[in-house]
């Protein structure tokens, strides 16, 4: 593919290097002479000097009405330059434009990208942090990416020569490893890619691309902490699974802090006379009431703010004494509150995200 990268800094350099190694036709636009020279000397790309926000410079890089450029990646450290470069490229007919955006207001909502015709607007600072977390989560993965707004992940894992998987047909994988909740969607072997099929046998040094739900990891951690069972809402029907686990009876109490997204399912999981305790509405505070279910099954709805100040002090004392051990995913200093919020918004953590304050 023919790709133009606007920006030859750390991000742009690495993007151009990766794309060039994959034998794409890459042109880098950089206005800083020192950076441009580094790119020119070290990478197998074409270098154009100038600002990516100027139509004349982009034209020199091959972007003009009717051009054959497939992708423009704008990744300078200035959001305005990136956005303008993408806007110019899209109007010129570039098929796909991708913009780096450091300011949180650009990536917190899809509105900016949509209104400007930008296909992808992303923060590499967030993406790099996500990838590091994923590599920590799947320590043997050589590459990771997220799918479905973070609800699933794709991992590339190399099969070691001494792995028990060597010689195993894919159709037998789930039989021998019933807890393997993932799908192998692609296998790279000796430089050639294959779409997997049931009779295909795994070989040493295969690079397997696996798609799996991140929810399962959270379930595994909950089970390790003492939960009796876990349900992956991304892959299972929660109501049916609850009924199966309880022999068709249902549960006595549902404690939820999500609100609208789970309300209807939560009510259907209760036994006659059961109670639902709600202490949050992060997905919406106007769920369907389902009044007939409420009165026919004599259900109780209880609202809770989780306690008063005195009970909070008691809880903190129990924590200090080791009687209660809260699960804390990450701790950030107050100065890094934006990073903490980004982790929380990504719904990647298991447990609480805590802030520390000096003094």
Strand fraction equals 15-25%
> Could you estimate the helical fraction of the residues in percent?
25-40%
* Quaternary form: single chain
Rg from alpha-carbon coordinates: 26 Å
CATH topology heading of the largest domain: Rossmann fold
**Contiguous helical run count:** 14
Characterize the biggest β-sheet.
Answer: 6 strands, parallel
Strand order of the main beta sheet, please? 3-2-1-4-5-6
Level-1 CATH class name of the largest domain: Alpha Beta
Gross morphology: extended
The low-confidence parts are 128-139
Structural class: alpha/beta
Fourth-level CATH superfamily of the largest domain: NAD(P)-binding Rossmann-like Domain
Mean pLDDT across the residues is 80
Give an account of the 3D structure:
The chain is extended and about 75 Å long. The chain folds into three domains: 2-122, Rossmann fold, CATH 3.40.50; 128-216, Alpha-Beta Plaits (2-Layer Sandwich); 228-303, NAD(P)-binding Rossmann-like Domain (Rossmann fold). Helix 12 links the parallel strand 13 and strand 14 (300-303). It contains 14 helices and 16 strands. 35% of the residues lie in helices and 25% in strands.
Keywords:
Rossmann fold, 3 domains, six-stranded parallel beta sheet, alpha/beta, five-stranded antiparallel beta sheet, 359 residues, extended, Alpha-Beta Plaits
What is the element layout, followed by pairings?
Blueprint: E1 2-6, H1 10-21, E2 25-30, H2 33-42, E3 46-49, H3 55-60, E4 71-74, H4 79-92, E5 96-100, H5 104-107, H6 111-116, E6 120-122, H7 124-137, E7 141-147, E8 152-158, H8 173-176, E9 182-189, E10 192-194, E11 207-213, H9 215-224, H10 238-245, E12 251-256, H11 260-268, E13 270-278, H12 291-296, E14 300-303, H13 309-320, E15 328-333, H14 337-345, E16 352-356
Parallel strand pairs: 1-2, 1-4, 2-3, 4-5, 5-6, 12-13, 13-14, 15-16
Antiparallel strand pairs: 7-8, 8-11, 9-10, 9-11
């Amino acid at each position: 593919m023919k790709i133009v990268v606007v920006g030859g800094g750390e991000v742009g350099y690495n993007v151009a290097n990766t794309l060039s190694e994959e034998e794409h036709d890459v042109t880098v636009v950089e206005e800083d002479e020192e950076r441009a020279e580094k790119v020119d000397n070290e990478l197998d790309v074409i270098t154009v000097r100038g600002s990516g926000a100027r139509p004349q410079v982009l034209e020199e890089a091959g972007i003009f009405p009717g051009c054959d450029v497939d992708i423009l990646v704008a990744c300078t450290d200035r959001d305005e330059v990136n956005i303008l470069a993408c806007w110019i490229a899209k109007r010129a007919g570039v098929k796909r434009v991708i913009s780096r955006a450091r300011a949180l207001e650009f990536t917190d909502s899809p509105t900016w990208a949509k209104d400007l015709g930008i296909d992808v607007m992303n923060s590499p600072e967030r993406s790099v942090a996500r990838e590091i977390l994923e590599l920590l989560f799947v320590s043997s993965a050589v590459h990771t990416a997220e799918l479905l707004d973070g609800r699933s992940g794709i991992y590339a894992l190399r099969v070691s020569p001494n792995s028990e998987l060597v010689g195993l047909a894919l159709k037998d994988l789930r039989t021998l490893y019933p807890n393997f909740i993932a799908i192998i969607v692609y296998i790279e072997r000796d430089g050639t890619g294959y779409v997997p099929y049931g009779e295909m046998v795994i070989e040493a040094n295969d690079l397997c691309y696996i798609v799996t739900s991140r929810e399962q990891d959270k379930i595994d951690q909950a089970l390790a902490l003492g939960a009796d069972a876990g349900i992956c809402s991304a892959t299972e029907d929660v109501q049916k699974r609850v009924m199966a686990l309880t022999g068709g009876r249902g549960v006595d109490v549902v404690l939820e802090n999500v609100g609208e997204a789970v309300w209807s399912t939560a009510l259907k999981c209760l036994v006659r006379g059961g109670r639902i305790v709600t202490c949050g509405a992060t997905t919406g505070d106007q769920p369907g009431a389902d009044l007939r279910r409420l009165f026919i099954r004599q259900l109780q709805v209880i609202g809770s703010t989780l306690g008063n100040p005195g009970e909070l002090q008691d809880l903190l004392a129990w924590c200090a004494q080791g009687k209660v051990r809260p699960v804390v995913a990450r701790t950030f200093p107050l100065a890094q509150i934006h990073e903490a919020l980004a982790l929380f918004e990504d719904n990647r953590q298991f447990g609480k995200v805590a802030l520390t304050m000096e003094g």
